[in-house]
Amino acid sequence: MSKIKIAIAGVGNCASALLQGIEYYRNNQGETPLGLMHLEIGGYYPWDIEVVAAFDIDQRKVGKPLEEAVFALPNCTQTIWENLPEYGVTVQMGPVLDGFSEHMKKYPDNSTFLISKDKPVDVSEVLKESGAEILINYLPVGSQKATEHYAEACIKTGVSFINCIPVFIVSNPEWAMRFAEKNIPIIGDDIKSQVGATIIHRTLAKLFSDRGVKIDHTYQLNFGGNTDFLNMLNRERLYSKKISKTKAVESQIAQGIEAENIHIGPSDYVPWLKDKKICFIRMEGRMFGNVPMNLDLRLEVEDSPNSAGCVIDAIRCCKLARERGIGGPLTSISAYTMKHPPEQMPDADARQAVEEFIKGERDR
């Protein structure tokens, strides 16, 4: 099989976890593949993914070999595989635009971004010269203009776009049409974790609805210590994020719920937690005979490897679509791995749709 050539925008914790995970599975091929939803997709394994370009804006990463940059501050995710290979890829300066929130200047250097003084490269030219087939968008939440800049470069060069952040590209009909017209497959928006707050909250909401329980109130509160949570202290950057996470859960409540009775979103930044994320979910409802019931749940996960468990499948499904000549939004894998896909599905239905797509029984 050929390699799947990817580029990465944002060499943060998520990118670090993904690349370390690829090497972990490459070096443990003879063992039971723990932690994967699919070991093989269409003949492609995790170690068939090859990084050919990378972009960032932090001076500790720009100009550095990729295998060094993924371990540079402020990255703080748990180490999965320390000895990364020499990729032959130097991290290049991307456009800053709205990718940096000014409030982050007030925090210690080891917790925040330090903007490089290098001149931004031409993203389109780098993508073209590198031979990248797919660009993974790992920019900070709220990076609307920066995300659109990378999306434009993908349309210009024919590169697929996997949008892992809550800026609406794949779920935006205008953007989706532009990619479809160029026959470029895209996946998005806003990556789910493999087993995280959103997937658990969705599952519980569907369970309550399926079992006839009327959900009166629910909240989901999250906090952590990585740059994602620090960035999100600027609540102005959270408009799309709150829509994405809320719609993901609301879509599973058959009886509906009033806006004032559902609250989902980041809550706070706790530096010493680093890449650990802690989530509290509460659900209040009424069951048989109008009798009340309440549920409280606490979840603790390492945030970035959790997302990599979904991205690694999205990459391989995107490659299959490119081989099959399919363009535009890939609705099955988007529904399965993203919070705000162009088409919401119950998670069991989304998984079945993905299996059908992989077998060629579904075109997208």
Structural overview:
- This protein has 364 residues and is of the alpha/beta class.
- The protein has eleven helices and eleven strands.
- It has helices spanning 13-26, 66-69, 123-130, 144-157, 173-181, 197-210, 227-231, 239-250, 303-324, 331-337, 347-359, and strands at residues 4-9, 49-56, 92-93, 134-137, 160-163, 185-187, 214-224, 262-269, 276-286, 292-302, 328-329.
- The strands form two sheets. Strands 3-2-1-4-5-6-11 form a seven-stranded parallel sheet, sandwiched between helices. Strands 8-7-9-10 form a four-stranded mixed sheet.
- Helix 1 (13-26) packs across helix 9 (303-324).
Structure summarized in a few sentences:
The protein is α/β, with parallel strands linked by helices and 364 residues long.
With strands numbered from the N-terminus, the spatial order across the biggest sheet is 3-2-1-4-5-6-11
Derived from helix and strand composition plus strand pairing, the structural class reads alpha/beta
Question: How far is it from the N-terminal to the C-terminal residue, by CA?
Answer: 22 Å
Overall mean pLDDT stands at 97
Count of the domains: 2
The CATH class designation of the largest domain is: Alpha Beta
What is the succession of H and E elements?
EHEHEHEHEHEHEHHEEEHEHH
Architecture blueprint of SSEs:
Layout (H helix, E strand, L loop, with lengths): L3 E6 L3 H14 L22 E8 L9 H4 L22 E2 L29 H8 L3 E4 L6 H14 L2 E4 L9 H9 L3 E3 L9 H14 L3 E11 L2 H5 L7 H12 L11 E8 L6 E11 L5 E11 H22 L3 E2 L1 H7 L9 H13 L5
Parallel strand pairs: 1-2, 1-4, 2-3, 4-5, 5-6, 6-11, 7-8
Antiparallel strand pairs: 7-9, 9-10
